[in-house]
Amino acid sequence: MYIERLELKDFRNYESIELEFSSKINVFIGENAQGKTNLMESLYVLSMAKSHRTSNDKELIRWEADYGKIRGAIQKKYGHLPLELTLSKKGKKAKVNHLEQTKLSNYIGQLNVVMFAPEDLYLVKGSPQVRRRFLDMEIGQISPVYLHDLLQFQKILKQRNHILKQNQGKAFLKDVMFDVYTEQYIDAAVKVIQKRFQFMDLLQKWAEPIHFGISRGLEKLTVSYNSTSGIKADWSENEMKEHLEKKLVDSQKRELDRGVTLTGPHRDDLQFFVNDYDVQTYGSQGQQRTTALSLKLAEIELIKQEVGEAPVLLLDDVLSELDDFRQSHLLNTIQGDVQTFVTTTSVEGIAHETIQHAKMFHVEQGAVLR
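Now predict its structure.
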C-alpha cells in the first residue's frame, strides 16, 4: 500500500496544502521548526486517528481555526481508497471511501504505518509506559478487536479505580459493584494479555533474524512480555483468570492503601535480552539502538505478513541518529516495496542510492516547494 496524495486544511502550521507522492521514497528537507515533522505527523494521524506527539487533538488544529482536516488518497492491492479525518474541538469524524465511520476501530487499520522517530531509539531504555504504548498501537493496527478489548479494559479499570479511590485507607471493602467490576476487569484483562502474548510471538519471529543480521551475526535478540501478575503465555484462559483473581484478592489491602488497581496489563512491560543479557540494564547505547531498529524493521515484516501488504514507513529525523552501517541496513531493507517518508535538514552525508532517487519536498515556514 502507498499514499498517492495528501490534503491538509488548518492542520498545525498548514493553512491549506495538497501534495502528490512517489510510491517509493519521499524526502521532506528543511531547517528545524519549519513544519517537516508536522507533515509526518499528519500521515500518522491519517492512519491512527491520533497523534504520536500529543494526546490533545486541539493542538493539531491551526491557531484560531475551528477545525482541521486531513484527506488521503491511498492505493491498496485491491484498489483506490479515500480516507478523511476531521478534527474539531467537539471530537473527530472519520470517513472511509466517503462513508462516515461510527467507530474509530473501523477506521484504524485501513492505512498501516510504522513510525520511527528519535524517541523510538529510547524504546528499550525508556519507561514501561512507552513500551506498552508501542504494543497497543502496533497490535491495534492489525487487530481492530484488540482496540475494542483495550478500550473496554480501560473503561472497567477506570470504574474499579474510582471505587478504590472512594474507599482509600479503609481496612477492607465490601461493595457489590466493586465485585462486579473486578469480575469484568479479570475477563477484559485476560483478553488484552492473551493478544499481547500472541503479538510478542510474531514480533520475536521477525526481530531475532533481523537483529542477528544488523549485529553481523554476533548477537541473538530475545523479546519477552513481562506480566506483573505472573501470568504465563502457555496457560489456558481459565488458568490466567484464576491466577489474576487470586492476585487481586492478595493485593486488595495494598490497593485500598493506594487507591488504585495494582495488578494487570496497565502495569506490564516488555523485556529485551541480547545473548541472555538484559539490554535495558547492561546493553551499550549501540546495542539499545540496534534493538530498537530491529523492532521497527520487524514491525514492517509482521504487518506485511498479517495484512498482506507492506505498511508505509515514516522516518522522522532518525537517519542522522544512526551510524552509517545501521543507516545502510535500514535503507537496504526498505528498498523496493515499502513507501517511505523521510524528514531531514540535509541529504548530505546520506550516500545511499535510495535517497538519491527520492522525490524531494523543500519545507519552509509551512509551505512546501518541489
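The longest helix spans residues 176-214.
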